[in-house]
Design a protein that fits this description.
Shape: globular
CATH architecture of the largest domain: 3-Layer(aba) Sandwich
CATH superfamily of the largest domain: Response regulator
Strand order of the largest sheet: 2-1-3-4-5
CATH topology of the largest domain: Rossmann fold
Strand content: 15-25%
Distance between the termini: 11 Å
Radius of gyration: 18 Å
CATH class of the largest domain: Alpha Beta
Structural class: alpha/beta
């Protein structure tokens, strides 16, 4: 597997240098940009990172919250928010809606690396190599930013919820992802029940599974009473073992 790729978004060049130095020393691959708009353009052209470190306040462009809201329309990208705003309500909003963790400026680079490690350990590695187009196997590839599945190079459009659902499952490919976990990640601030998930799962399967054999899903397997498992290709499995 490639090393973790971390995107750093901050309009302060000094902060970017500190964070990039800390990440490089910790063995991460990093990319830095100075605005949320530039970050979204980079994701659209090169694909998603494994994690993003995003400044909360980046005038005159979009805020860290707005960046997170946009990218979470097609993924479940883990985000750590950088903030100089030591206001409890702001931090609560960020954690509930947009971020996995936050750190207040000025910060200790070692503490930031430790927080990154905790988030990545908690959410799991992304089993497939994230790229501009993420290849699952010879039949299926996913373009997360464009919300598209490519089946033998034929484009199939996905809804935001289907794309985010696919991201959640693929992040832990080969492992059971519980229904409760999926519901919490898809709809963190509203009541959600299994019936709602089943509708989106059914539609996603209709789009990406082999229609010639409906009785044996190739990619998304139901785990009775627990959740779902996404197919793990043999080439990926060999890398992990």
């Amino acid at each position: 597997m490639k090393p973790y790729n971390i995107l750093v978004v901050d309009d302060n060049l000094y902060t970017l240098r500190i964070v990039q130095y800390a990440l490089d020393n910790a063995g991460y691959q990093s990319q830095t940009v100075t605005s949320g708009e530039e970050a979204l353009n980079l994701i659209n052209s090169e694909g998603l990172p494994h994690l993003a470190i995003v400044d909360f306040h980046m005038p005159p462009g979009i805020s860290g919250f707005e960046f997170a809201r946009t990218v979470h329309q097609f993924s479940d990208l883990p985000i750590i928010m950088l903030t100089a705003v030591n206001e409890e309500q702001t931090l609560i909003e960020g954690l509930e809606q947009h971020a996995e963790d936050y750190i207040v400026k000025p910060f200790n680079p070692g503490e930031l690396v430790a927080r990154i490690q905790r988030v990545l350990q908690r959410l799991g590695d992304f089993a497939y190599d994230l790229d501009s187009v993420t290849r699952v196997d010879e039949r299926l590839s996913i373009d997360f930013p464009k919300r598209q599945a490519l089946i033998f190079s034929k484009t199939v459009s996905l809804t935001p919820t289907e794309t985010k659902l696919l991201y959640i499952l693929m992040r832990q490919a080969g492992k059971i992802v519980t229904t409760e976990y999926i519901l919490r990640r898809l709809w963190p601030l509203e009541p959600a029940f299994e019936d709602r998930l089943h509708v989106h799962m059914h539609r996603l399967r209709r789009k990406i599974e082999d229609k010639a054999d409906k009785t044996r899903p190739r990619y998304i397997k139901s785990e009775r009473g627990s959740g779902y498992t996404f197919y793990l290709s043999s080439s990926i499995a060999r890398k992990d073992n």
